[in-house]
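Inverse folding, one chain.
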């Protein structure tokens, strides 16, 4: 006798029809499963044998052959356990084989007969609804399958309850549709203090669906602003929510039968592989770009990602889907995402010894002076902090016109502004002093002292001090002792740096 039970094979977000055919043939006792199944399918023989034994039944001493048709379609996953068991029981005459033909069956079996959850039940329910058939699935996934619409769903906790339902002795109640997931939009953009220019860019990007790259120092709020984007995007429509839920169902991340109504926000680590980002693996699963479908894919520390991984995002961003090609199958997943990336500025890299290259050095406005002047340092720092010229001028206690001249290189800040300039930049805009003239000039600028004031405060003549800084004269031993006390004093510019930096970030 031969029994046939319908089931499905998952290829991306497509569920293809598969027939599980079981026959009992006279011959040496054996249990074979054919039809291009993977390791999980081949191991289903022992799970089915144990589940049937838990009912107090034994397999007949015959040659049992189970065929998964079509034979040339790869079969992956443990959801074939339940249809194989029902097909064998139908061939044994324990359950009506004609009744089984009207249901699409999915589910994993335990050795005690319990029916465990398996990924992709929502896709199987939609496929069964389109084919005019019912669906048999695990009890925990009944609410998920009920979202498919007009389809008869039988959610059984174990194999014994399912057999009693088919015999009519104990009917299982139809599951109710799961709850709609409450819209949790995550952080609010109002939590970001200051950064008005960046927030305006985030709003424009969200309104137009544009990709976004944020460049700023650590702690400036890049990750927080990226997490706020799903909250300012419109809510998912009913069809979009079903599409996002289908992707989550295939990945096994749809829990409790809840329909997802919040736009996804995925933030993979920069060490993620190409398969993790675009999908793949031995059993092809959706990657991060597909799990972020109709949402936001956030790549923090963008330069740390491997170049092949970033190149693999070109085609998904252009076409809105990602195709994973394998020798035995070609799988397509949706991938309509808004890409948001963040990285730290590299302007400070040019200050390190023997390092002359930075990403910003290729911009025309920084090629004029090679990025080695105060004007370049001020421009870099202001852009890193996302400030307008008037805001930077206010922090440096100078008029906007004066600050504009500093940035253009028309003039340099007077010495009394150097303590504030050092605090604004976060570092001293000159090489590490090595000689005595360089140390005298650096220490004087840290205090914001002119040559006249520095010389007078230590009892020296202005011309003598100027000759020391120029290196035309060397101080005498008594003068060196007094200069040593001046050089050993702590820098005022260094001490006032943190408060100004804090005030910039708290605006």
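Residues assigned per position:
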């Amino acid at each position: 006798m031969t029994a046939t039970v319908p089931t499905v094979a998952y290829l991306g977000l497509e569920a293809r029809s598969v027939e599980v055919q079981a026959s009992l043939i006279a011959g040496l006792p054996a249990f074979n499963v054919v039809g291009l199944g993977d390791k999980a399918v081949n191991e289903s023989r022992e799970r089915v044998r144990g589940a049937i034994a838990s009912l107090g039944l034994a397999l007949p001493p015959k040659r049992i052959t189970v065929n998964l048709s079509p034979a040339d379609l790869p079969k992956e996953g443990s959801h074939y356990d339940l249809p194989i068991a029902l097909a064998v029981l139908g061939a044994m005459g324990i359950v009506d084989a004609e009744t089984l033909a009207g249901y699409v069956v999915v589910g994993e079996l335990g050795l005690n007969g319990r029916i465990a959850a398996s990924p992709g039940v929502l896709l199987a329910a939609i496929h069964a609804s389109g084919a005019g058939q019912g669906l048999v699935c695990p009890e925990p996934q009944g609410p998920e399958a009920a979202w498919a619409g007009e389809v008869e769903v039988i959610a059984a906790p174990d194999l014994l309850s399912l057999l009693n339902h088919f015999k009519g002795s104990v009917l299982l109640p139809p599951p109710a549709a799961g709850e709609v997931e409450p819209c949790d939009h995550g952080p609010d953009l109002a939590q970001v203090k200051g950064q008005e220019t960046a927030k305006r860019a985030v709003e424009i990007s969200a309104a137009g669906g544009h990709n976004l790259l944020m460049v700023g120092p650590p702690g400036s709020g890049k990750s927080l602003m990226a997490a706020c984007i799903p909250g300012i995007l419109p809510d998912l429509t009913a069809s979009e929510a079903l599409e996002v839920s289908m992707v989550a169902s295939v990945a096994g991340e749809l829990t409790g039968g809840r329909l997802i109504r919040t736009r996804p926000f995925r933030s993979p680590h920069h060490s993620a592989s190409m398969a993790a980002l675009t999908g793949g693996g031995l059993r092809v699963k959706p990657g991060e770009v597909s799990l972020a479908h109709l949402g936001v894919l956030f790549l923090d520390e963008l330069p740390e990602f491997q170049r092949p991984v970033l190149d693999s995002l070109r085609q998904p961003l252009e076409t809105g889907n990602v195709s994973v090609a394998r020798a035995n199958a070609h799988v397509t997943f949706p991938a309509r995402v808004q890409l948001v990336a963040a990285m730290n500025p590299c302007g400070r890299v040019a200050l390190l010894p023997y390092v002359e290259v930075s990403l910003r050095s290729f911009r025309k406005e920084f090629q004029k002076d090679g990025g080695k002047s105060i004007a370049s340092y001020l421009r870099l720092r202001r852009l890193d902090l996302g400030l307008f010229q008037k805001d930077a001028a206010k922090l440096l206690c100078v008029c906007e016109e004066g600050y504009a001249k500093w940035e253009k290189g028309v003039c340099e800040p007077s010495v009394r502004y150097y303590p504030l300039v050092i605090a604004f930049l976060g570092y001293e805009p000159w090489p590490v002093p090595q000689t005595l003239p360089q140390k005298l000039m650096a220490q004087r600028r840290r205090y914001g002292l002119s040559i006249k004031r520095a010389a007078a405060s230590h009892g020296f003549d202005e011309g003598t001090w100027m000759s020391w800084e120029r290196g035309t004269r060397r101080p005498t031993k008594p003068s060196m002792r007094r200069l040593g006390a001046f050089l050993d004093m702590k820098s005022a510019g260094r001490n006032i740096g943190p408060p100004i930096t804090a005030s910039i970030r708290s605006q």
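The first helix runs from residue 39 to 42. The radius of gyration is 35 Å.
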